[in-house]
Amino acid sequence: MSSLAWVRGVNTTLGRVAPQWVAGKMRRAFMTPREFEPRDWELPLLASSERVTLRFGLSALRWGVGPAVLLLHGWEGRPTQFAALIQTLVGAGYSVVALDGPAHGRSPGHEANVVLFARALLEAAGELPPLRAVIGHSMGGASALLATQLGLRTEALVTIAAPSRLITVLRRFAHFVGLPPVARARFIRQVEREAGIPAAQLDVARYQLDIPGLVVHAEDDRVVPVGDSAEIHAAWDSSRMLRLPKGGHQAVLANPEVADAVLELLERVESPAVLAMAS
Question: Residues near 140 by Cβ (< 8 Å), separated by ≥ 6?
Answer without folding.
Answer: 71, 72, 73, 74, 77, 101, 117, 162
